[in-house]
């Protein structure tokens, strides 16, 4: 087991390439826990996690076969490995109580609902970022990634919107982000608002939004659009959290 | 103006009949603010609110015509009337700072997201409760209510699921509630969990769930089902909040 060879630092296991949203690295930097990142190709995820004794947190579409997902962590201090970023956030809060808290008492259900709601509202995003992600992978990971997405009714190439359809779907994404915007007070940047407290839900949604910047690039028209939507709310959000990137 | 004739107590304006979910009366009882309920027939809502100088908080599907909705309140102490239950909750917190808080600092965005998410997940519910509500109204309100729902693609009678379809849709509602259940810690009954604190989001979702009890009846199979789903979570939730009903 990799665990036995002794890690000096907490390890974060991420997919190679652009598919990696930085929710977990945001969270670890916020807590001030030193870590090293291990980049893993898609076909190697299952073996790596099994070798570390990290349990799968989901099942494949058949409902039975364990589905091994990233990100995951392995903490050499407690010899514990786990996966799924909310579970990891709770683990970190529990094991490192002296560090800033990602999920303050009484906010767990609310944060989970917020994350679920922001993902549901952003469903127009997948058709843009999934194909872009696929095309950026190396051959080995790409083949594996496409196979994992075979339950989708379309290929990545069919999914990626073109021409008028692209304009419409991009507009739809802007409107959907507008629904999320309405939950915020006008001056608020963070989910917990005026308190100025950062919480895990901020990192979860920011990690999702920044995916657009990752796949299209910092200078792209797409990122400029998103940064400017809703009076610049999302641009300001990413900027405020930049110190944890 | 009704306001000028002098109310002794805060007034809550509710639709007559079963359409009234108790979110606001829960909230006022929780805060311990005495109030009297004024029951209004659907066709009288607009005039009543206009007479009290209460602004509409939404527009009709044309995007322009003001849409006057209930519940609303009129507070004789501040001579203020307003509508939309989250806005009312915030008003009550602000004007009655010595009373228990419905929207604790830092939870507004999270509570709004929770309410939006629970409503979105429960979309299978409308086809049951909207027709049942319609059929319980008196003639004058029923006609008005049906007219207001003409933008829906189906009549109430077409919408109400029958036979196998009914079983499937009821099952779908149970599964959708199961998604909400997953956000809660196993022992939690309230949204803010272990803290034991009640907040507005509890009243909003409970007000929605209890609609099932209102339209089908306390002894109905439907209410027994819902109370028992997810190891009795929703039954326990309603029971815990009963003292504020």
TrEMBL record, chains A, B:
Residues 8-100 form the GST N-terminal domain. InterPro entries: Glutathione_S-Trfase_N, GST_UstS-like_C, Thioredoxin-like_sf. SUPFAM superfamilies: Thioredoxin-like (SSF52833). PROSITE patterns: GST_NTER. It holds the Pfam family GST_N_2. This is GST N-terminal domain-containing protein. It comes from Dendrothele bispora (strain CBS 962.96). The lineage of its organism: Eukaryota, Fungi, Dikarya, Basidiomycota, Agaricomycotina.
């Amino acid at each position: 087991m990799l665990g036995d060879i002794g890690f000096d630092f907490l390890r974060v296991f991420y997919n190679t390439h652009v598919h990696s949203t930085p929710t977990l690295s945001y969270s670890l930097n916020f807590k001030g826990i030193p870590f090293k990142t291990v980049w893993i190709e898609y076909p190697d995820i299952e073996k790596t996690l099994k070798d570390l004794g990290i349990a799968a947190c989901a099942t494949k579409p058949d409902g039975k076969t364990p589905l091994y997902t990233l990100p995951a962590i392995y903490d050499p201090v407690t010899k514990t490995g786990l996966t799924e970023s909310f579970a990891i956030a709770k683990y970190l809060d529990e094991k490192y109580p002296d560090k800033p808290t990602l999920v303050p008492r009484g906010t767990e259900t609310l944060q989970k609902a917020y994350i679920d709601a922001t993902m549901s509202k952003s469903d127009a995003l997948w058709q843009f970022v999934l194909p872009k992600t696929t095309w950026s992978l190396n051959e080995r990971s790409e083949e594996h990634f496409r196979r994992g997405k075979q339950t989708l009714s379309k290929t990545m190439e069919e999914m990626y919107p073109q021409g008028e359809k692209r304009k419409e779907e991009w507009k739809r994404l802007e409107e959907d982000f507008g629904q999320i915007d309405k939950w915020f007070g006008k001056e608020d940047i963070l989910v917990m608002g005026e308190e100025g407290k950062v919480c895990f839900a901020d990192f979860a949604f920011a990690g999702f939004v920044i995916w657009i910047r990752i796949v299209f690039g910092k200078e792209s028209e797409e990122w400029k659009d998103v940064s400017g939507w809703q009076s610049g709310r999302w641009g300001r959000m990413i900027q405020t959290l930049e110190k944890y990137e």
